[in-house]
Amino acid sequence: MTQLTESKRRPDTGALPWQLLDAIADIAQAPLMRIAESLRTALAPFIKCSALVIFTEDCTGRPQKKAGEESIVSRVSIPELDRVRAAIPGGDPWRAKAVIAGKEREVLALGYAPSNALLVLTDPAEGQSEDSERVLSYLWRLTAARIQEKVSDAPPSYLLESRAASAERIRVTAELVDQHSTTLETVLAALRSNSMDDHAARTAVTDMTVKALISLRTLNDRTSDLVEEPVSTAFERLREDLRPLMHFSNIDIQFIEPPANGRALPGEVAHAARAVVRGLVLAIAEQPDVHRVRAQWDCDGENLLINVRDDGRGELSPEAPNIERLRQRVQAVNGRMSLDVMQGWGADISVVLPLDPPSAPAGDVAAWGLAARELEVLQLLAAGQRNRAIAAELNVSENTVKFHIRNLFRKLDVRSRTEAIALAHSAGLR
Description:
The chain is of the alpha+beta class. The chain contains 16 helices and 12 strands.
């Protein structure tokens, strides 16, 4: 009788969409590296697609997050995604044909206005219901907000990987520009030669090649823009971040702007700088009798110099957990933070963030203690080879390659292929 009574009291949850709820929970908890795969899995019961691509410029080191067919996710380019983003008429799902990964495909795309992020599904299944598209819009908004939140609250590990990825992307793009510019300029010289008599063909090919050169230069500028942010723009974003606090509190925040012509900030430095100042202002706001905070940025050509001062009682503790977390953020980009607390006069915090990554000490390769086979794998990694190609080159299995890569991560003290490649390049391995 007792069991029957308890059974009647227990709510009937069988009708709840547990699969969808579990998928939402997975998106909410997913790290940035896995969030595209989590979103694709969540969408699978509603909208099937060959590949899913997220494009967000908030992530300086890895603006694309992808899942699906390798032939698509390995070839999709930023200019292609830019064209799709420009074509979307509004916030509703947009279905049309677009060139993705070098081929015209059916796509389903959505934007996200707060961060200007883009979601693209390639080859989506036909005949989607209105409810399916509503689920798509909901899950995309959740994912985009999650990415924005993770980036704005970037932990030290993200900042380290972002810096390594940014450096690697700049290097690869610069090499491509040099290589293709030389090739195209040589072709131009040949086509302009008086020894060629087909004038019409020469003119047509010359025009086409000039356009290709312009496109290549534009791609280089575009890539540089993604990994750098003008210091004045970065500071204005900080001001916007703190505007709600200024509106809803009695604290007057005074902003001392950096020189407008100051050196552009690497993306991870700009993120770290905003996160640190936001954290400091919030920590200061918790202190009693604080009426005014001054936030100042400056540049000396090599460092971003940050100073935050308040007019409180000087009760901010350097040992407080929130201050220690901010110190770790600063250290993640090789910076320094000092805090001077004056009883009855407030706190004065100085932060120095280097704009360039530290140079690798001589002899790093030998100091890593790599076995001969591990060094071979690292050299092939640095050359841009994937696991399958490395396995074929060394005549071993892919599992053996994965085993060596795990050992490399441990010996190099890195967490990703990107970090390992950047470290190898800094030590002269190509």
